[in-house]
Amino acid sequence: MMDEGVDVKSLFLFFFSPQVLLLACAEDLECVPGFQQKVFYIEKPFQFTEDRLILNLKFDDCKGNNKLNFEVSNPDFTVELDGNLVARKNVSEVGKALFVHARSEHAEDMAEIFILEANERHGALKEIIKLEGNLGIPRQKRAILATPILIPENQRPPFPRLVGKVIRSEGTEGVKFRLSGKGVDQDPKGIFRINEMNGDVSVTRTLDREAIANYELEVEVVDMNGKTMDGPVRLDISVIDQNDNRPMFKEGPYVGHVMEGSATGTTVMRMAAFDADDASTDNALLRYNILRQTPTKPSPNMFYIDPEKGDIVTVVSPALLDRETMESPKYELVIEAKDMGGMDVGLTGTATATILIDDKNDHAPEFTKKEFQATVKEGVTGVIVNLTVGDRDDPATGAWRAVYSIINGNPGQSFEIHTNPQTNEGMLSVVKPLDYEISAFHTLLIKVENEDPLIPDIAYGPSSTATVQITVEDVNEGPVFHPNPMAVTKQENIPVGSVVLTVNATDPDTLQHQTIRYSVYKDPAGWLEINPTNGTIGTTAVLDRESPFVHNNVYTALFLAIDSGNPPATGTGTLHITLEDVNDNVPSLYPTLAKVCDDAKDLRVVVLGASDKDLHPNTDPFKFELSKQSGPEKLWRINRLNNTHAQVILLQNLKKANYNIPISVTDSGKPPLTNTTELRLQVCTCKKSKMDCSAADALHISLTLILLSLLSLFCL
Questions:
Q1: Are 415 and 372 in contact (CB under 8 A)?
Q2: Domain that holds residue 677
Q3: Cβ–Cβ under 8 Å, residues 244 and 277
Q4: What is the C-alpha radius of gyration for the chain, rounded to an integer number of angstroms?
Q5: Partner of 404 at 20 to 30 A CA spacing, among 311, 322, 383, 493?
Q6: DSSP state of 633
Q7: What angle do CA 28, 231, 56 make, to 5 degrees?
Q8: Domain named Cadherin: which ranges (predicted)?
């Protein structure tokens, strides 16, 4: 049976508290590795709050917990090294249970945390009470009366002072009182003590409520041998607040903003002071007041502060909140906070509130003059004139920053205008070169606006537009090739002196009647020349499509056209010559060396390939042939594999020696070209997968070499 008057909810919270262990007197038992409590019951909150303690899990491997780590079945939770179970983030849905696995060098264990809904906790409470009986936790009647004690802070000596008394209903003969807890035998130690014989409780020093407001002690009655007879029961000691802390403004600097022209009563900012005294007493009841305003114009009372809330509001008319007419757009208010509800005996603290009057776009930008002049040389780009404007708004805002646009006189998009971010001037630029011969004068109409829109009752006026008169100066321009680049197609190997093309260049300065001369500027291969008077380009060497100066069949050269101006001006023209291929390259054969074993069973010696620098149809298919073989027997033959490859085959095994095989290859050009190449064949000795080609037994020389030797003898 439970004692009468015990609150079931309080008992539930007691047993479900993360600090309460359901296992009794574990410290008196021999150390058992693992969790000291393996099963927990907690009531499910509305949500588990990030980093807030849920409960503490005590794990001990009895050997120092070296390399201890925890794993939780739900990744939204973690167990810190001190055993505190916390949520990694705010979590609402968890499930019915969490499982925590702990592992160290010497032990591992599992703990279960059951999460109960509110309607499940009564059944769980019955189980806990049943468990309590099974564990043998002693149940006692309350024979000790320990009423709460109230002590004012800041008491003066002498100490110790008697502050309360603990009473035992069964008398004090043969027993003594024992007091414990934070403030007695735990830090801060020695603040309280109890008379062992009569239960008088004393304080030994001055208390500070702001340091510790409440002490929860335990008192018990023991016999003369120290055996507990009654208790322990809780003894609560509360420290009574005194007004010993001034209000403090902790969140500075305090800066507020209000738009100019704001209505009377507009809230600017809130001032909030802190008082360390008891918030439930007048010691921390604050009232606010404005002590001083700087500057004092246009009114010494521009603002008002709500004495209870600390809200600062405007109290002048919108007309007086005109940033452009103020002595300064920044006001500083000295704010006082006084406790004791603002009574004269209250303590005070002060802070400075800075209020900035923010600008709104109530002034349109205006050009400093109606017309600007600019002069620019034809063919030149860049900034030609800076347009200046004035604006009375705040230079640090979009209400002052200017945005320029050309609204007339720019059909060819030859001009652009941009804002100089430092000066706010409009930088008018030429972005497409102007031509004096087309137009010597230009007139532009420029408009200026702000980045921010104007307020509804303000509009852009005539002063927000200006005219720019631009004069173009004539310069001697270089001749222009038509077309440029120029393109022509020619066969390679055309005769030297052939005409490639006659170029045409004209002078843009039509009013100056100048003559033009031509010259070669860049001719990488040195193949071309140009008539300086009529621009006819001819060849001075053979054009070769296979030259390294030709890329993708195209040869490129540059030419100059120079007028007779003072100084003369030059134009550059580009010529692309596409070269058509002719069959002017014999095919080549590869490889030219092959090796074979003298006892080889596979007499297919080598696969030969042919290539040609020319283009199709002057290349493959190639024709492969063997020159006439000397001797009574034929030693090899050649078989065509495809359009570009053939295979040399021995007709019998040969002795170790070097052989030269003349092979001719012919392309498909018209007329075709033939090239004869000697294939050097080394017949080698092969033993144990090693080929020895050194010191041939005999040197067999090709028929071609024999004939050449005989010819040389006849010529002597």
A1: no
A2: 588-692
A3: yes
A4: 54
A5: 322
A6: S
A7: 50
A8: 175-249, 250-367, 368-481, 482-589, 588-699
List all residues 6 or more positions away from 1 whose beta carbon is below 8 Å from its beta carbon.
none
Residue 304 sits in a domain whose CATH number is 2.60.40.60
pLDDT reported for residue 631: 57
Cβ neighbours, 10 Å, residue 344: 6
Residues 6 or more apart whose CB falls under 8 angstroms from that of 650 comprise 596, 600, 603, 605, 635, 636
Q: What mean pLDDT value characterizes the chain?
A: 86
Phi, psi of 400 (to 5 degrees): -105, -35
Task: Count the domains in the chain.
Answer: 6
What are residue 654's phi and psi, to 5 degrees?
-115, 160
User: For residues 62 and 108, is the Cβ–Cβ distance under 8 A?
Assistant: no
The SS3 assignment for 703 reads helix
Residue whose entry in the numeric block shows the structure tokens 């030059």 = 570
Tell me how far apart the terminal alpha carbons of the chain are, to the nearest angstrom: 143
Displacement of CA 686 from its chain's centroid (Å)? 66
Residues found in the chain: 716
For residue 588, give both structure tokens. Answer: 């080549």
Closest CA to 665 of 640, 682, 637: 640
Instruction: Say whether the peptide bond before residue 232 is cis (omega within 30 degrees of 0).
Output: yes
Cα 17 from Cα 20, distance rounded (Å):
6
Q: Do 354 and 275 fall within a single domain?
A: yes
Domain assignment present for 26: no
Residue 525 Cα distances to 94, 259, 503, 543, angstroms = 82, 76, 20, 9
Statement to judge: residues 227 and 254 lie in one domain: no
More confident residue, 219 or 121: 219
Cis peptide before 160 (omega within 30 of 0): yes
- For residue 302, being part of any structural domain is answered with yes
Claim to verify: residue 233 and residue 151 sit in the same structural domain: yes
SS3 state at 284: helix
Residue 13 belongs to some domain of the structure: no
Asked if 375 and 410 sit in the same domain, the reply is yes
Q: Any residues with CB less than 8 A from the CB of 476 and at least 6 apart, and which? A: 509, 512, 563, 565, 566, 567, 568, 569
Task: Please choose, from the candidates 275, 245, 272, the residue with its C-alpha nearest in 3D space to the C-alpha of residue 335.
Answer: 272
Q: Identify the helix (H) or strand (E) that includes residue 9.
A: helix 8-16
DSSP bridge partners of 560: 519, 572
Q: Are residues 273 and 236 in the same domain?
A: no
Residues 6+ apart with CB under 8 A from 28: none
- For residues 132 and 6, give the distance between their C-alpha atoms in angstroms, rounded to a whole number: 16
Of the pLDDT bands very low, low, confident and very high (cuts 50, 70, 90), residue 322 is very high
The one-letter amino acid at 467: T
Model confidence pLDDT, tens digit, residues 8-27: 334 334 343 433 333 333 33
Same domain assignment for residues 547 and 511: yes
List, for residues 56-86, the tens digit of each pLDDT value.
999 999 999 998 988 887 778 899 989 999 9
pLDDT band at 375 (very low <50, low <70, confident <90, very high): very high
Structure tokens at 353: 């509130």
Helix (H) or strand (E) holding 713: helix 703-714
Report how far residue 647's alpha carbon sits from residue 589's, in angstroms, rounded to the nearest whole number: 12
- For the stretch 70-128, pLDDT in tens is 888 777 889 998 999 999 988 877 777 787 888 888 888 878 888 887 665 444 444 44
State the pLDDT at residue 170: 78
Token representation of residue 635: 């030693």
Cα dihedral: 544, 547, 552, 556 (round 10) = -80
Domain boundary among 558, 580, 602: 580
**What DSSP line would sit under 101-142, residue for residue?**
EEE-SS-EEEEEEEEE-GGGHHHHHHHHHHHHHHHTPPP---
Residue 482 has pLDDT above 70, yes or no: yes
